[in-house]
Amino acid sequence: MATSVDELALTRRQHWVNHVARHAFERGNLVALKCRDRAVTWAELQRRVVALAGALARRGIGPGDRVALLMGNRPEYIETLVAVNRLGAIAVPVNSRLSAAEVAFILDDSGASLLFVDSATGQVGSAAAGAIGHPVPVVEVTEHAATTVGTAAAYEDVLAEDGVAATAADVSEDSPALIMYTSGTTGSPKGAVLTHRNLAAQCATLLTAFGFRMNDEVNLCASPLFHIGAIGSTAPALMVGATIVILPTGAFDAGEVLEILERERVTTVFLVPTQWQAVCEEQERAPRDLSGLRVTSWGAAPASDVLLRRMSKVFPSSWNVALFGQTEMSGVTCVLEGKDALRKLGSVGRPAPGVWARVVDPDMVDVAPGEVGEIVYRGPSTTLGYWNNPTATAEAFSGGWFHSGDLVRVDDEGFWYVVDRVKDMIISGGENIYCAEVENVLAGHPNVAEVSIIGRVDERWGETPVAVVVLKDRRRALSIEDLRAWASDELAGYKLPTALEIVDRLPRNASGKVTKGVLRDRFSLARPAPRVDSSPPRAGQQSPSGIGEQTDQSPMR
């Protein structure tokens, strides 16, 4: 059959819509996605993507429309991302652990026209969709005969609808693919707009860093697919036709992960340091055959020297690669190669190919090697800006470079070391916690006069949030349990403080700003924070900040 000019033009586009279609054409019977005992071939993935895109088109979704995804890890997540982009629409991944109020803000701010949920997020998603000023129909992925939300359409029923397949849009590489929401110091989430070209740049970085091979790669996606780290590792796997093994959302089980690595002959995997700690312990206790594992990668939080040396011992034949970056840069900006993992302990590596990076002072003057400055970026992976937020965009790109908020120093070999975070962000078990967002909520408590959030060192989770509070009435007791219960409707469980410190006043500088350095000096190494669960109990272990070890797999935010 002759190929039309339009079809020929479409194949020139470089994005995952075309990658999936190409693999279905060339190697349709091979496995694209695996999750537990379910395997999806490339041909089946393409068929389901086309069917879903048709159903979305019949619901009025077209170029530029936003479709939100509030789901845990599952094959349908990737199907939906590709189907939305096939129409030229924009996918909006949403943290599946947010409260209804937090989800509603994102739906409203992005102007989402449709919301995908699963059985675990259906109630929260439905409540969020009903709380905003414009209608947002809900589609639910469920393993049961009926949805958990009566008004939701069942995902498989949507795919099975009769109707003409929607024509694939000619999606330019410079058009938005994703809006990834990340909180800021003001407490209001901002939607970083990432294009298909941004994702292609991320592909180039990871293909180089991991040394992806043609046709025989198996990548374990062990991190939440609503994070740029997971999406960033999915993009190159889709490009080269790797099998993506998806770890379902839930409490992290090191034994289960090792069994998957052995059974599926996984070649590349990213885990956060706390996960690697548990995996090393389990592998030492009960060794598995991991001879297929080429790359062990980590990020999202600092890894101790002890852990890195342990990983080298437990996985001697694997290439240990450290990744560093952030959402606005489409993922990875710096890579520490395996050959330097132990030689340059504490470093995040050097800028990845294609990333323009400088270390500057507040006046945008480059600092000398060894001096501390802020990383600023340019390049093909850089976000277009923040959705519907020109003020934040202008601030972020002041001076013509994207300001990361990370303070670093560079050694005489060009290796970068992060020394602090300009925005006082806390990373707990790989999840980013922004102090101002938490402070804004806690400040509304009837007995809180002032509050400041800082991170407390935790041996297992890196950091946990601590609330330093000035009471309105010291005669009225305030406990950490009271504070968490009061804020639980407004904040995701992992953002709730795990400890409370009562002070007479907060230290401030001459301009009236709280000097958090003074608070960190006093409280960050204080008595161990109480082990408080901050989310409804689930099977398996939970972190003190409510994070099952299924967490963000890269230092993106």
TrEMBL record:
Alphabetic keyword roster: Ligase
Domain AMP-binding enzyme C-terminal, first and last residues per copy: 437-513
SUPFAM superfamilies: Acetyl-CoA synthetase-like
Enzyme class: ligase
Chain spans, region Disordered: 525-557
Family, as annotated: Belongs to the ATP-dependent AMP-binding enzyme family.
Protein name: Long-chain-fatty-acid--CoA ligase
